[in-house]
Each structure stands twice: as C-alpha cells, then as structure tokens.
Design goal:
Structural class: mainly alpha
Largest sheet: 5 strands, parallel
Distance between the termini: 75 Å
Number of strands: 7
Helix content: 55-70%
Strand content: 5-15%
Radius of gyration: 28 Å
C-alpha cells in the first residue's frame, strides 16, 4: 500500500483533540470525536490491506491477526503494566477493585462492555478510570473478529454488490446509533453495533479507491472539486471538535460530521493539495506516527494524577501532564511499537508472549477484584485511629441505594385531598431524592409540612419554561418530556405552597433554572434554591488523608480544599442570578457540612461513618446529619 503522509497527519487531528478534551480544555468540548476519526482511518487502512492481499491471493486470517497483535498489544500492555504500581499505591479500595475489573476486560477486548455496564463516558467517575479509553480498542478488535471473515465469505461477490452490502449494514448501524443516542445513550457510545458504521465508512472509502484509481488527467480535471471536498472534510471535523459538547446526542446523526469529514479527506486530499500539505507537514506527520502511543498514555496520566491530587488539579499541572504524553509516546513508539513489528520478532514469539501477558493481566486484575481492592491490606497499613477513613464505597453505596429505592417509591404521589398542613414540593435530580429521604426519614423534625419530590433536573427546567411560554414547544429529550408530563399529570406544582429546587447546577443551565424559579415565584409562593455542595470523591480523599496520617483538624481542612471550585463558581453565579427575584431565597448547602470561615468541612461522623459517599450524595448517616443541620439552620418550616 502506497504511503500517504496526510493520513498520518490526519491521525494528529484525531489524537490532539481527544487529549485536550480529557485534559479539560473547554475550547475542545467536542474533542471526543477524534475517536470517530480514528475509526474511519482504521476501517480504511485495514480494508485496503485485506483487499490488496486478496487481489494477490495471499490473504490469511492467521497473518491478519498476527499483524493486529503486533500493532495493538505491545504498547497497550506496556501502559497497562505501568498503571499497576500507581494503582496499588494510590487508589482507594473501590477504585482499585474497578481497575482490576478493567485490567481483565481490556485484556480480553471487552472493556467497552464493562464501561457500558459501569459508567457514563462523560461523568466525573470516568475521569479516574485509567483504562477508560480502551473502550475504542475493544470496539475495533470486536469489529475485526467479524470483518475479515465477512470479506472472505464475500470474496467472490462483484465489487458493486460487496459495496452495496457493506453500505446497507452501515446504514442499519447508523439507524441504531441515532435511535440509541436518544433512548440508550451509554450503549450507543460504547458498543459495536452503533459504531460499526464508522469503521464501515472507512471500508467503503477503501473499496472505492482500490477499484477506482483516477488517472493523472482525471485528477487534474477535477482538481478544484478535490480541493473543495478535502477542505470541507477538514472543516466538518473541526466544526465537531469545537461545536459539540457532552450534551450532544452521540454517535447518531451528529457523528456524520467527523465521519464524513474524515472520509472526504481520505478520498480527495493528496500530498500536493492544500489539505494534503497541511496534514503532510513534518510536525503533523511526526505526531501522527506516535498517535497510538499518545492515545494510550494520555488517559492513565490524567486519571492517576486526578486520584493522587484529590483536590482539583491546577491548570499549569494539566499543561505539564499534557506535554508529558508526547515524550512517553515517542519512547514507546520507538522502543516498543516499532521493534514489535520487525521480522526478528517471530510469529511464535508473538503468540507465546502476548498469550502469557494476557493471562498475567487477567490474574492481576482478578486479585484486585477478588480482594475488594486489597481492602484488608490497606487497613493493615493505616494507623488504627485513622482506619475509619478507609471506606468500602460499594458497601455504603449499596446500603444507600436499597434504602433510597424504598423511601422514594411514592415520593411523587399526589398531595392529600384534605389540606391540614403546608405542601412542599422538592424538585431536582438525584439531589432532590437526598433531600426528600432526609425529611421523610425525620418526620419528627419536619412534621409540620407534607413533602413530595418530583424529578425535574436543571436541563429540563429550561424546557418547562419554554413549554409555558409556547405550548407548541417540542421537548427533544425523552427524559425531560416524561418528567414534565408526570409533573403536570399529578397537579403537584399547582397544589404546592412552597418549592425547593436542588440539583447540580451547571454553567449552561443555571440561568434557565433562575428563569424557572422566577416563574414559580410569580405565583406568590416561596422558592428555595439549594446551592451545589460538591467535593472531590470523599472516600478517595479520606483514604489519601489516612495514608498521609493527617490529624483530625488537617483532615477537615483537606476536605475543605477538595470543594469543587467549578461547581462553586456556578453556585455563586446562580445566587447572583436570583438575588433580586421576589419570593426566592438562595441557601448555601455547604453550610450544612462546612465551617466556611474556618475552612473546615466535617464529612465523617464521630464514629467514622461518611456523610457523603461520592462527590455530593449523602449516605444514610449523612441524611441524619443533614436533617439535624437543616433544623438547626431553620431552613425548612
């Protein structure tokens, strides 16, 4: 296959936005689409290799999978190996347990399935998963289990029929992706059936270029169109990188921009074209050559650093971490990737070494999983008086989930027909569940009012306001549509005497939420807004404090330092947005847990039970503490 430097340059366009997105640079809010660019490139290159070998009568599955193993596994296994000592040293038990599972899943190309079952790609917990990014490798390997066999079975088909069949499969996959991106977004993001169309797009490009190689005269005649198409392709990719964000439904029709953009570049960019010269310059080509290693290193570096720091990482440190990716990538490319592809490394060497390492990583992962993240080992190495801070988050979480499920089962039922007490409606996301469970569990403290909870998160409040302003307003998000319809059906809003809004306010939603509060307050009823009270993961922060053998006062100050500054800035903006609205009051939820002037937060009970188990959701013990503090502060009633 003829070398095309612009393809290596295109890899740079793919990998840099992914790295900068995971580093938290908001300008690259859609940087995750770099993975889609990689998928199309992979589909193009691998299909070109297959059809070239088939044309020469030398294609074999054994040789194909040997190539894949040489290309993928050595650098991947190096990065996995390097993660292990840091995970053992710094990860709390629950995170080490999760890491053990991811070692196993990555080793057997099922990490995309694991992360589909465990975490949303865009949530806070995903940021501390060192192997999160291997989901895309799993998708590719699963695809390449089936695709070469399909090409062998269809080798006698005419090229037009083969292309038509692959296009039909791709369209079905795209249709599934579009439906799933709205109705099952996590599965849409991670799983093969909604990503196959991107790889197949690359395959169709490869088939077209292999069977329709233009002559020099043809190329000159359509030079302008080629330039325009390639520039359009680059523009589509850049548009997605800078215009998309975590809220973009993906990878449905929105993924067409990076996918079609990549296809246009591969089809029409040539070394002498404008885009070809941009992508083919030595800097872009150089980064492109090490792009696979750079992709492998970036997520573990960021995830391990986030765990180690606990408190938010300063931006200069993020810059240093980002820069550190590239020398590491070069070293692993030069001393691992390239040697692994040489003839000196025989097929027998590949099979034996990769099989042995796979088994070793599965065994190491199993130890982490079966020992619950070396929980007993951790306890044995922490001073007795600090062992209360070593928490098995999964146990605490399971207790909470069980209790919350029972307590909130009828939380949104209608208010009683007889009105003997004040009716208070709590609105929000999972934080509204926390508040409802707190007051429901302590009716002795809050028995002068009847409370109900209805789900209406900050994203949906904007839709509610628009629907009130315009009855024809179409609500795109199915969850918002369901929440608003349920709220209207039970007449909870109209019958309530007071409203409490509690959710995780975000930079892009707080203004709409302020408008929602203004709408509610216009009826003359009081509206209380609880601020964000978000920390770094409390169980992880507590372990770090225990390992560092901090005394009680230092631990409480450490918790104060772990307050999520971004969330807090949004709270301040929210307070400013509602301060002049009549009948609206803003309550600083951090006052529940913290003495802000003293810069201390108490997040554990005297007997060692955590009040918060993650970044802001209360435990059963935390609900009891929450109730007493609410009473002391006089916020309810």
């Amino acid at each position: 296959m003829k070398y095309r430097p612009e393809i290596d340059g295109l890899r740079t366009v793919a990998v840099l936005p992914v790295i900068l997105f995971h580093a938290g640079y908001e300008l690259f809010s859609g940087g995750y689409v770099g993975v889609d660019v990689f998928f199309v490139i992979s589909g193009y290159l691998i299909t070109t290799i297959i059809v070239s070998d088939q044309a020469q009568g030398r294609f074999s599955l054994a040789r194909f999978y040997e190539r894949r193993a040489r290309r993928i596994l050595p650098a991947l296994f190096l990065v996995m190996f390097c993660c292990i000592p840091f995970a053992v040293a710094w990860f709390p038990p629950d995170q080490l347990n999760d890491f053990g599972q991811s070692l196993i899943a990555t080793s057997v190309y099922l990490s995309n399935v694991l992360f589909f079952l465990k975490t949303n790609y865009f949530n806070n917990f995903a940021e501390t998963e060192p192997l999160l990014h291997t989901w895309s490798l799993a998708v590719e390997e699963q695809y390449y289990v089936f695709f070469p066999m399909l090409m062998i079975l269809c080798s006698r088909l005419r090229k037009s029929r083969l292309a038509l069949m692959l296009a039909a499969i791709a369209l079905c996959s795209l249709a599934l992706a579009e439906w799933s991106s709205v109705h099952a977004p996590t599965s849409a993001f991670y799983l093969l059936h909604t990503r196959a169309w991107e790889l197949l797009t690359g395959a169709l490009v490869a088939l077209h270029l292999f069977h329709n190689r233009p002559s020099a005269g043809d190329a000159a005649a359509v030079g302008f169109l080629r330039e325009a198409a390639a520039i359009t392709g680059l523009g589509l990719i850049l548009f997605a990188i800078f215009a998309y964000d975590k809220r973009t439904p993906f990878p449905g029709l929105y993924a067409l921009a990076p996918v079609i953009g990549t296809a246009l570049i591969i089809l029409f960019a040539r070394r002498e074209s404008i885009v070809g010269r941009i992508l083919g310059n030595p800097v872009f080509v150089g980064i492109g050559l090490i792009s696979y290693s750079a992709y492998l290193w970036h997520q573990p570096i960021f995830a391990i650093a986030r765990t180690y720091y606990v408190i938010p990482i300063p931006q200069p440190v993020y810059l240093l971490l980002t820069l550190a990716v590239f020398p590491l990538a070069y070293l692993s490319w030069a001393f691992v990737e390239k040697p692994a592809r040489s003839a000196a490394f025989t097929r027998r060497n590949v099979v034996v070494s990769m099989s042995g390492l796979t088994a070793a990583f599965v065994a190491i992962g199993a130890v982490g999983f079966l020992t619950k993240g070396l929980l007993e080992y951790r306890l044995a190495h922490v001073p007795p008086e600090l062992r209360k801070y070593v928490v098995d988050k999964n146990v605490v979480k399971d207790e909470r989930v069980s209790y919350w499920k029972a307590a909130t089962e009828d939380a949104d039922k209608e208010f009683p027909q007889e009105k003997s007490k004040r009716f208070v409606l709590i609105l929000g996301d999972s934080k509204s569940d926390d508040l409802y469970v707190t007051v429901d569990r302590h009716k002795d403290l809050f028995g002068d009012s009847i409370y109900r909870r209805a789900r209406l998160d900050d994203e949906c409040m904007a839709d509610f306001v628009e629907r009130r302003r315009n009855l024809d307003h179409q609500i795109a998000d199915k969850d918002c549509r369901r929440e608003i319809e349920a709220l209207s059906a039970k007449n909870l809003l109209d019958r309530a005497d007071e409203y409490i809004l509690t959710t995780i306010w975000q930079k892009h939603t707080y203004q709409a939420a302020a408008d929602f509060a203004r709408l509610l307050a216009s009826t003359g009823k009081r509206v209380s807004i609880l601020s964000n009270a978000e920390f770094a993961d409390v169980t992880r922060a507590a372990l770090s404090a225990a390992v560092m053998e901090m005394d009680e006062s230092h631990i409480n100050h450490f918790f104060f330092k772990s307050i999520n500054e971004d969330r807090q800035r949004t709270s301040v903006a929210m307070e400013e947005a509602v301060k002049d609205i009549k009948n609206v009051r803003f309550l600083e939820k951090l006052d529940i847990f913290c003495d802000l002037p003293a810069q201390e937060c108490r997040l554990f009970s005297p007997d060692g039970q955590p009040y918060i188990y993650d970044t802001g959701h209360v435990t059963i013990t935390g609900a009891d503490f929450f109730a007493n503090r609410l009473r002391e502060l006089g916020w309810l009633g």
